Records
---
Amino acid sequence: MQPTTDPAASAVLAVVFLPFVAAGLVPLVYRLVGERTAYYAAAIALACFGLVASQYGTHGAVSFPWIRSLGVSLSFYVDGLSLLVGFLASGVGVLILTYSGGYMHGEPSQPKYYASLLAFMGSMLGVAFAADLIALFVFWELTSLSSFMLIGHYQRQESSQYAARKSMLITVAGGLFMLIGFLLLHSVLLDVTSGSNAFSIVYMLENPELVQEELRSAGLFLPVLGLIGVGAAAKSAQVPLHIWLPNAMEAPTPVSAFLHSATMVKAGVYLLGRFRPVLVSHEWELLFAILGLTTMTVAAVLAVGATDIKELLAYSTASHLGLIVAGFGFASELGGETGAFHIINHATFKAALFLVAGIVAHEAGTRKIENLGGLKEDLPITAAITAVAALGMAGVPPFNGFYSKELLFEAAWEAAVHAGGGLAYLYPAVAVFGSVFTFLYSIRFLMLFFGEKPTGLHKVHSPPKAMLAPPLLLGVIAGLVSLGGILGTFGIHFAPFDHFVGEVWASTLPPGSDLHGGFSYYFPDHITPAVTMSAVTLVLGAASYPFYGRLHEGVNRVTDVNVLRANWYYNSAVFGLNGVSDTTAERVQNGLLRTYATWALASVAGLTLAGYAATSVTLPAFELSKVAVTVPILLVLLVAIVGAVAVSIAPSHISGVLTLSILGFMVAVFYVLADAPDLALTQLVVETLLLVIFLLVLDKLPAFYGNTDRAKMARDGVLSAAVGATVFVTVLVSTAATPTDGIASFFVEQAVPVGGGGNIVNVILVDFRAFDTLGEISVVAMAALSVLTLVAMRERGETQ
């Protein structure tokens, strides 16, 4: 893969970076057009959608060199899966930004809001098209950063601050696990690919058997699988890492609809779909099928216990993401088909429902489920949208969610039969159980529009057209997908849609997989295990709905038990660590220079010595017979030792500094005896300057040290020994090497012709290492300016 001027390559590059450029211009645009910035951002999203659409029908990669020394390129890859996420990020982005034009009227910090939304969209597009592990990680973390800004939009509210921190901590931590998995992948492929494709996702997709074989032979298959799984689970809110998603509903409703239904949470399932062809195996199925079905069920149960419409939708999002993870988890072709199709269905009905929730909250003034009902009279169009979207979410035929859930049931049954039954039948059983609760909370959301209005609910006004049009369009799309299933029964198919879903499905399968003639879906016309499972789900759901209130109370009673709540563990850990941090800060940051020096020196020495021990560094052999010790050198060393002892027992600052200078002057004498007069001169100048500075400073300090605690003296003695040992070992290790290609001869030969001087040391410092010297001088100059500033401030009484 090489850089290219091909228009297709330029389009991919533009679609990723256009939102970032547009985000940087938002403050200027907002000054010019005010709240109409929403439509500027929507226009950018529409342009990105057009660029993504221009890539439909293409397949391949383009690469731009980035970090050449590491073989890292800014590579982009176009296939069905990347186009799907690209369409969702840009297409739903158009609707969300248009919707924001009405919803965010009069809201604070709008420039930051629109800039963050555009940056987030660009980050998701980068994740979708990234073809290099490093590029994927960078864009992955950018989604966490931009979502942190969006979730914490109401930055003065404690609940928003808590939600933003929680989402950042969990998703970024998951990303770090994923990064370790990527580095392990790179280490295994480094030798196989000679480094040229060690970070390339495309290479892995083209050679999945080789990659898996190399991982297994290195004993790293399970670690890589687990680490990537943690990253995906954190981003896609899988149990027990689902807890950040309900709190993230503190964000404005358009953010919830964009990030937490259609885009950001899809990053995790996208990651699984991307690596599914490479890592799919028995272990893959065991891990992700169980994880997905568990999340699907637990989150559905928690949604029944929700008291807030956005909380209900948040848990339902986690539940449906679990369905997608379970689909991708099943190793059969049906599993990939399930995940690919349900990503589309979930994005349409869930984004529509989040926008409906925003309309309800905006116009009714409340999000409490118990305070809402009978809204159909005031919001008839919104009620119709909700009916299509909620019944699709419930999996009621013939609405769109029914068809992808049928595929899940079929994949779960096939996996159980293929495994020989037994415990494997828990796959279909748990899928049905979780789907019953999905039916319950979906119908409960729909019933907000039916029945009688609760007491105190005033007349609800119709929303602005800018808020109504986006969910209406999403509802129409969901309705068309539903209609496609009915028409499919009669052999009539939406060929472009079926082809696109087939492309997405093919992207989740290893090369050469059988797609059984391509993707198609239709309303079932005969009894199958999957149809039976759907029927059981609907019957049990309908029979249980009259007892919804009891189930709601029961779920809340169970979740009141601390040990059964993941949030309890999170809060205990985080706030417990906060207490430890406060205590540690009080002990470490106590305002005493001695304490700061102790911690800094102890940390550096400890980490350095531990690093030497961990890497099994061996000290070079020390042969005393080869050391030429003359009488003058021996006398100098003895005087230096006496000086060192005198420093440790000196009774005052003055005497301590004076005896310390003995060591410096003995080093200068040693250089003279070792035939290094230039170093001796430098040492004398530095030592004299330091002595003068010390004496000037000591003029402002007490004459005597005072009484010192023996424990502190012992601690300082141990610390001094550790620092001395660290320096001693470091010098021995760093000077032990004897390279064959010496650099000394180069300096000797080039000193006069290149440096123009006969003093090699001066030439090295001034010419060959000019930037080093300039940097050192700059540091000294900055330190001098800082000292002068502090002295001037002290004289004016500004410091203590």
Note: Residues 331-565 form one domain.
---
Amino acid sequence: MTLRQTNYYPQERIFVDRETCIDNFRNFIQNPNNQDYNALFYYGIAGIGKSKLQDELQSILDNEYPKVLWVSMDFENERHRDVSTFLLTLRNNIQKKSKLKFYKFNLAHAIFSKKSRPDIPLSKETYPMLKEDGFFYDILNALNETVFGTFISIPVKRIFSIINNAPESTRRFLEELPIDIKKLESMEAHEIEKILPVIFAADFTDTLGTNSRVCIFIDTYEAIWKDWRGVGSSSEKDKWLRKCLIPNMPGVSWVICGRDKIKSLWVEDEQDWEMCMKEYLIEDLPEEYSEQFLKKYIEEEEIRSIIGKASEGVPYYLNLSVDTYEQVSKIKKPEPENFADTKKKIFGTFVKYLDENQIKTLNILSVPNSWDENLFKMLMEEFNRNYPDFSRLIKYSFIKEGTEGNLSIHQLMRESLKEKHDPIDRKKIHLFLHNYYSNKIKDIDIKSITPEHEMALIEAYYHAKEALELADLGGWIVTHCELFDQAGYWKTIYPMFNDFVEMLKEEYGPYNIYAGIFMKKLAYLNEDRGRYNEAISYYQQVLEIYQKNFGRRLSVDSDVAVDALSIAMIYNDLANSYMGISEYKKALTLQQRALKLIKNIDELELIKNSDETSHYIALIKQNMALAYQYLGQYEKALELGQEALNVREALFGEEDPEVAKTMENVAVIYQHLGNYKEAFALSQRAFNINEKKLGLKHPVVAQNMSTLGALCTLMDKPEDGLEYCKLAVEIAEEKLEKTHISIAETLTNLGSTYQCMQMHDDALEAFQRALQITEYNLGSENSNFVTLLNNMAESYRKMGNYEKALEFYQRALDIARNCLGKEHPTVALIMSNTGRLYIETQELEKAYPICQKALDIRGKTLGTDHVDFAITSLDLGMIYGGFGRLNDALSLSEHSLYIFEQKLGSDHRYTKQAKLVVDTLKESR
């Protein structure tokens, strides 16, 4: 192996993303406050770059403020934690950059040294001081004549004689000692040490005055408590600095760096520090800055990504990784596994100034994601009764405060602690925390779920994964997630089911029946979240799992009745998702297959409970009613929907949410049939049931409200409709993911209400938002998208922007014909609206064939007594009137008026419009 030359002077690493810290410093230097003394304190976890920051700030002083004298001290040096040595070193550092004299301090320090070490003579060898005036060595020789016995006797007279014979410039500095030499003679060494900071400050201020341009840096401030073992108050360890030294050096700027917050401790002891200190956290580096740093040294993107994510924005981690990269590069091409030991290296830095009990406490606290004082005390009571003081603990910089006031350990330190913590102990703590959070969600009411309950569920699952066996974990998920599922917290529980399915597949293989059961729940949740394609994928996987486990024996016998029933219901569930993406014919085929399978089971009397088969048949018929509704076959839809409603009411009672769901579906069918009163009555019943059972702030209740709002608008009560629709959108946006299709549906109804109220800008805004969500979820080839395009065209038409309206009508018509068929009621709706536009532009020759075709489709699909048929009939009547065919015009208009009066009442705007047309035609004949 070839030996390589050691590089004692490695390349200086770049300094990134400390602009905020630097700006604070510049402001501090340029605009010192009006107090007698002031300090700037930066704190952050080990490795965050405090020392590097100080280097940068000192460089700024050198380059931008050359008249500022600065010196630096570091408590990392063990000797600096001693008061007398700190002051002596500080004196030396200042004298390296200035001619400042410390006569009084030198004298007091020499007396202190002789009293603290009486057996050691004071000489140049044993008491190294920088060169002072020659008289000082005479004083040292005099002190060496100190008499020791019961009392220590310093030769005071001789010292005074030496001072009196010193040069005048020296005597001037020694005339006003803060304390008399005779007093020093009578004091013990530790008593003199306490006043050394005051004497030091007096020398400093006497020479430079109170407007000195001096900046003193102190680093590694936390080390001052390294040797403190809980004897006395921790505040006594730095009292000499904050109470004796800094306040007695007015005009000096102090920049202190440490791991832990200190301001509150200082303010607690001296209120003036509230005004005299600014305290700033040194944040983790943002991801882009970490990447910027790593790009300078590491070529491989994969390695940079691994290091960047693992570093959690800690510069020291990045530096260690670059060191490793450079070392490995000398031997071979670096691989990701070469960086596995970086966390181990940084762990020692994290815990450098912590004792064993503190480390034990932090091991415990690294298990929960976050904690408050109450949970802290419970954990300590259970696992570490000799826990440190909570108020002191939370001042550590690696303890982070969240937005809700909860506390946590910095993620990088937490990972480091995890690797060092005994796994058996961690599992016990996980189990404790799992039970703690599970109890928080025990016996809660569905209408009383709060964000705190939601968070407790998430935390309980997190710890359950570490504490429970797989089977117990599955049981816990089913038991504890059911209520949250009913309450509409789908996006909260989805990751749990998804995670658990992956664990089942990994443990038992992809075709395990339990994986299939939980995968079906994932499909349900995707359907609830409006993610129909994902739901279809899961249902198809479940179907494959069921068929592999149950066999393909659909010629049912007693052994496979339940299996066949499960497969039938998967067909039904799969059909629901196909309806969500507008594949109604495919959905109907699957529903018919499911219905046939269940009827075979029923006919063979393989399931003895007839109510059970009735329930499944009613459920499938309810869903088939939806398919027929989307296909525009409203009478068939109503027949099946009403049949399903009757059966479900008989089975579950009239106040069950499942019955309410069927009511809502039938209500929508009545709406399409133009029977708005019947629709409103059913929808109101559904709303009442769901609001009572689920609470007002539930996604299903929001859907009910949106339907009620749409019906109010159709019934010419737009003000009531607006109230319903606004609240529906508010609830949906609060409870659902921002791209959920239900939000688009509530926005669609809100936009229609705005449109009815002539608030077209608001309508277009609502439609545009709904359009974006719909396209994101379903694409552009579906009935929802068609409806929105048509609605937007209507707004443009009513605003007089006919060119834009025609563009949207044509786009809607092309998609509708393609995905719904040429004779669907929605196609007729778009054609009817287009014809009305041509009526308004006086292009009757263009309007006539379009309106006639729309009337034919509506008559065929909806019947001639439908409100929509009457709308087109009235339009066609006006066209005939324009052509001079008054008898035909009157006949059509009178038929429309009759339908409106029967269906909508005499006060509806459609009725009034039709009556005006009829009266005008009669007068014209």
Note: The chain has a mean pLDDT of 84.
---
Amino acid sequence: MSTEFEDAFVGRAKTRHFLRDDGPAPQPRAVTRQPGMPRVAIVHDWLVTYAGAERVLEQIIACFPEADIFSVVDFLEDRSFLRGKQAATSFIQKLPFARTRYRAYLPLMPLAIEQLDLSGYDLVISSSHAVAKGVLTGPDQVHVSYVHSPIRYAWDLQHQYLKQSNLTAGAKSLFARLILHYMRNWDIRTSNSVNHFIANSDFIARRIHKVYRRTSKVIFPPVDVASFEVCEQKEDFYLTASRMVPYKKIDLIVEAFARMPGRKLVVIGEGPDMAKIRAKATPNVEIMGYQPFAVLHDRMRRAKAFVFAAEEDFGISVVEAQACGTPVIAYGKGGALETVLDASHERPTGLFFNSQTPQAIIDAIDAFDSGALTFDPADCRANAERFSNSRFREALHAHISRMAPQFVLPPLPVEEAPEPPAIDEMQQAGLKVLAVDQSGALGGAELSMLEVVKNMRGDVQTVLFDDGPFRIALEAVGVKVDVLDGKSLDGMRKDGKARPGMNMLGGMLKLLRGTLERSRNADVIYVNTQRAMVIGAIAGLISRRPVVWHLRDIVSEEHFGRTQLAVIKWCTKLMLEHVIANSTASAAAVTALTRLREERLDVVFNGISAEPFTDIEAVAQHELRARFGLPRDAFLVGCFSRLARWKGQHVLLEALLESPDMHAVLVGAALFGEDAYETELRAYVDEHGLQDRVHFLGFQDDIAACMKAVDVVTHTSIMAEPFGRVIIEGMLSKRPVVATRAGGVMDIVEDGENGILCSPGDAAELARILDRLRKNQPLRERLVEQGYENATSRFGTERYVESVEKILVDVAERSRKRG
């Protein structure tokens, strides 16, 4: 809200003459009703996203499925939670820039909400945090208002919001205060037309009584606890997650952990306070920014505790954390007092601190870590169940029945009936996927795509822009493959330095024609690499097929040129239906570049099969070394990647100079015009007399055997890696892993627990770590044990394939419904 007040007050003067209505309200539907069953209207402030208030709306609709919906504006794209309903809207719907700047019309909203005609309904239910409760109703109508809060910025938080909006002095400040005075008067007046108030917490019930002098029934808002899974094994880090705005007090939490360097904090969220929060962060504080649900869920399940410093009306994230079996350390004021059970309860689920200061948070963390109070994940989950969707529906239904006994309400379902899995529906109809990749080589992106297409149900056809081992691997598992001639794109580089000539443009047109021809029979186009994405996106636009990009790159200036980034940005924004990112780092980069909406982006960690590694479990290491011509008794450090400068093989060679008792094994070839780098590596070996200690194995099909032949697996990239497949493979091979501290690696490795992290490009540090591992067998064994458990539990192929398949199915279903 840092600028919305200024926008709102300036906007009113510009739009006063646009007082036209958005057409007649929908008439009550002709449905078969039992005698006494009311005609129901549900009023919501505005429909632009799916957040906490919309979760309440979703469950109200579940209670009254035949109700009609009203709202000031309705710009939703995903209408699934409304069961496909379209809201009747106000004149603001048609005002200039209303889709993106609807808050600028706040001063007009009282007038707008009063223009909605609800005269044809018996029961009106408003879900209000701003103006929805102000709808006009008659003496024979029953109006029940579920209040998330009286208008915060007009009442007790006025001074805070004016300060945040830089409206504390001057003409704009005076105008803002006049508008807020008008809003307060209107808010009190319209409270008299509400028959029954419902508050979302005792805290809000007190606020309602303070402002309106009305009593209210407390019904806690619904939390989708079923979407969260309990994790019994907690890891050694704390989590906080929130939008970064002043009243959330994320800066206080970060400042507290900055004073506790031995404790790790993970911060998820974004907002106007991001720069201030980053400035306070120390190395033990990981600022992840915005993350999709899958990443938030993963961190919330594994965290030892969730830290919450805001004075919140309710605090859904606090309940979600407990649904994961994670205890909460919260500021002891507001809604948290009603959702967290402290030491005064028999089965506590958290503890409180009494002031919003870093020292109070430190004291609470100390108390938590002391072990004086123990927390059971099962107790946390049981407490969260009090706030489930079904509990909300039951309470709402029962309260309205008591307050309006003249009505016969529709019965509640016995339990929430989930929709049949979309995958099964699509498979019955025959889900058809066209998978597109630019390469014929078997790089990490191709291996990950191979895992998807060979296990996916339905009809999968693959198009490659080059021939090679990838085509052979696809055909070996029964996948249909067409190879198009993409050699004209060989000169196209990530850095964008190669300008497209006529030959390159002609080649792109040929690839486009070939992909377009094969896309016409597909339900969805699944593109795996950046060049394939561009061709696939254009083909999808022409053939009107949805396109899903599996992003396996960090799309930043570090990896791509400006031209390439511009192409990626606009293709993603305008032509792609959905993006699957392979790590939080990849997701953060594409979000920063494209401002992609949350609902169009998912993070799905790559899945790697353990089978190739378990198949050779019984083979002795000396036999594997003999197979590849490696010395039997040397301490071997393996590096597994294509030979490219940013992959950092030269760092390992430099570290070797400081570790005369170790050998390096380089597995990989120069795949994409990087032969000069391989020549440079070999020259370095010759120059420093390392011929007997460096073993170039080139490209190898059997990575599992190569990894089991070495003693340590290293990941040496000098730039942020999008994911780090080799790290998972190293863990599956039961070898200790050393990896660089950047990018997607941070999703995989917990330093000192399941691997060891080192600074990118620091050969001296890498040498010290490798020497320590060589001398410390117990450390190697512990890393192997934890690494294998991590790889099998979090990065298995079944979850990976199911996640990708479900996204493709959902995208195809949405496209069918639209078309």
Note: The chain is about 40% helix and 15% strand.
